[in-house]
Amino acid sequence: MIWFQLFKQKIITNAKTAMSFWKLSAFLSNIHFTRLAFTSFLILFVSLPVSSFSEETNLKLQRHLILITKKTIVFEKEIDALRKKSETKENLQKIIDLQTQIDRLNLNFDSRATNLSLEDSSLKKKEKSPWTKQLEDITAPLLQAIRDLTEKPRKVDSLKKRISSLENTLVIHKKASKNLTELESTHKKVENSSKIEDKRYLSRLALLQNKYDPELTRLNLEEAKKDLKEILFSDESLLDSAKNQVKDFFKNRGKNLLITITTFCGFWWLLNRLRRWILRLNLFAQLSPAFGKLFSAAYNIFILIICLIVGLACLYFFNDWLLISLIVMILLLVAWTSRQYLPTFLQEIKLIVNLGTVREGERFIWNSVPWLVKDIGLSAILVNENLQGGELRLPVRDLIDKHSRPVVEGEPWFPTKVKDWVILNDGSYGCVKHQTLEQVVLRMKGDSLKFYSTIEFMNHSPLNISAGFRYCIELGLDYKVQGRISEEIPRLIENGLKNILAKFFAGDSPDFTFLEIRFDNPAASSLNLMIVVHADGKCADRYEENRREIQTALVQICNENNLTIPFSQLTINMADNPPE
Fold first, then answer.
1. Are residues 297 and 319 in the same domain?
2. Is 384 in contact with 429 (CB distance < 8 Å)?
3. Cβ-count burial of 471 within 10 angstroms (0-12 exposed, 13-18 middle, 19+ buried)?
4. Region 361-381 average pLDDT
5. Quick one: angle between helices 55-84 and 196-211, nearest 10?
6. Cβ-contact 534, 470 below 8 angstroms
7. Quick one: 473 and 460 in the same domain?
8. pTM exceeds 0.85
9. 502-to-155, 488, 561 alpha-carbon distances in Å
10. Is residue 361 included in any domain, yes or no?
């Protein structure tokens, strides 16, 4: 009974309080009677005994709610005044802004009265297009995880900005309230006036006093500072919060991720074994190599797609939408960043499957050197057996816009081999000591070394004499032997050379394999013979020495047979009667 009497007394007290609020709301506005009545009854309900709030806190909350209601009424009156004016674009925008503020105040009122964190559904953005909404649905778990991880710093930053804004607003409202209070001292002259302008004047001043009342701003500032203090002095630091979020991620999703990776790798291994089994059956033996490579490339793409689908299916089975969103985002990012490389990628695929302009088993020129295309896979393998270190790996993209051709049987892959003797068009004569893709090194007589870049060496048109060579030596005789120059003297010189150089013509494998002497041409001072000697390649290291021996033998034959070797002569004819 005692409890019932106390409860009854409390209801009577609350009823009186509600009646006072009723009168206050009627004074504020007769137009908004219904809203204030609902507000008063809601305050009456809030003022009932609740175990979680003290009496002082309830009274402070009531005052806060009344101030919110007064502010709402002020904004509604401003909207009514704007609607009575002409419908301009500026007025419509002001009405929209005021209505937005009213919606926020109503949400604030409901949130504080119910002590719940309510979502402002009236301030949501406009409905998005279907594909944008679907993209948001896909990325929602990932964004939510990031939002949870950064919740505390975002709240701190938001509260700091709100406190700064409220402090500035409070200063403005205090200044405005002070000026309006000073102006209130002149009300006595017009309070009892019946003039329309005086009534509107008083009504306008009352509206401004409610609009710039600093009490609501001060209460909001105190609440914001209180919330910021509670967050800053919480036991969990930012670093601890981040650590806990990471631990929670691996604790809850680590197992899902491990199972997904294991399944992905297992399917990849199994399908690769299946491909080896198919290739072992020689089903494509009768088809071209290009078809086999095309099958391998298509099968690899098929394996990748199947393994991705299986991995996503595992995450879907575990209902792990965060990892699904993360994988989908990565795939979309890879696809988006690769779009500009798609044409190049397609050309590389054509080369890999041996359907491009450069094909396996054909001759391909790279840096002015011919190469055999041995294989085209993720990289192209080029081979030249005549070069030291003659295997080269190139990225497939370097073969784009290049051409190869079928190999001709017996054609050389480089002008020389190591230990070959060459003569270059710059007069250099030496033995090839090293030849690689980058350089060729010649060992000259006297063991000096001469270096050429491979391209420069090729441009000097090397004459390889290691396989054989010939001497073409011109011998001029005096015109006195004109009658014998055609037959007798060539035979004489041939016999003489064979006798003097007998060591070069002897044996089953002679150094000189061919000898011919023929009349070549009549010159101004001599009758010229051409001595042609073919030498075996084994004499290449004595190219210059053998030439000198041939010329020495020719001079010796001329001396023994009284054959004159003339020198160039110039005949000057003098006039019979020179001018005086």
1. yes
2. no
3. middle
4. 89
5. 130
6. yes
7. no
8. no
9. 108, 21, 19
10. yes
- pLDDT (tens digit per residue) in 279-295: 777 665 565 666 666 77
Same domain, 10 and 102: yes
Q: How confident is the model at residue 78 (pLDDT cuts 50, 70, 90)?
A: confident
Minimum mean pLDDT among 26-30, 91-95, 327-331, 543-547: which range? Answer: 26-30
Answer yes or no: is 192 within a domain. no
325 and 297 in one domain?
yes
Q: Max Cα separation, the chain?
A: 175
Helix ranges (H only) for 318-450 are: 321-337, 342-352
Q: Is the dihedral of CA 491, 496, 499, 501 positive or negative?
A: negative
Say if 459 falls within a structural domain: yes
User: SS in 3 state form for 464-502?
Assistant: ECCCCEEEEEEEEECHHHCCCCCCHHHHHHHHHHHHHCH
Residue 12 shares a structural domain with residue 98: yes
Torsion-angle region of 428 (φ positive above 0: left; ψ -120 to 50: alpha; else: beta): beta
Q: Which residue has the higher pLDDT, 200 or 359?
A: 359
Q: Let me know whether 326 and 398 are in one domain.
A: no
In tens, the pLDDT along 32-50 reads 434 433 444 434 444 444 4
Q: Find where tokens 């995880």 sit.
A: 145
Last residue of a domain, one of 429, 464, 499: 464
Residue 47 · residue 25 · CB < 8 Å: no
> Would you list the DSSP string of 59-94?
HHHHHHHHHHHHHHHHHHHHHHHHHHS---HHHHHH
pLDDT for position 334? 83
Q: Which of 229-233, 299-303, 388-392 has the highest mean pLDDT?
A: 388-392
Q: Could you give the strand order of the β-sheet that contains 512-522, starting from the edge strand earlier in sequence?
A: 469-477, 527-535, 512-522
Within this chain, do residues 457 and 477 fall inside the same structural domain, yes or no? no
Distance, in Å, from the CA atom of 370 to the CA atom of 255, rounded to the nearest integer, reads: 55
**Placement of tokens 């044996």 in the chain:** 507
CATH number at residue 492: 3.30.300.100
Owning domain of residue 519: 469-560
In one-letter notation, the amino acid at residue 266 is G
Q: Which residues contact 210 (CB under 8 A, 6 or more apart)?
A: 28, 70, 71, 73, 74
Select the more confidently predicted residue: 14 or 545.
545
pLDDT at 112 over 90: no
State the average pLDDT for the chain.
Answer: 77
- Please give the residue that has the higher pLDDT: either 335 or 188: 335
Q: What number of other Cβ atoms are within 10 A of residue 293's Cβ?
A: 20
Total domains in the fold of the chain: 5
Q: Rounded to 5 degrees, what are φ and ψ at 268? A: -60, -45
3-state secondary structure of 531: strand
Helix 2-28 crosses helix 33-46 at what angle (to 10 degrees)?
150
Q: In this structure, are residues 437 and 387 in contact, taking their beta carbons and an 8 Å threshold? A: yes
Residue for token digits 């030496």? 430
Angle at 230 between CA 229 and CA 234, to 5 degrees: 115
- Boundary-marking domain end, from 78, 97, 119: 119
DSSP for 172-196? HHHHHHHHHHHHHTTGGGTTT---H
Considering the domain architecture, whether residues 92 and 45 belong to the same structural domain is answered as yes
Does a structural domain hold residue 66?
A: yes
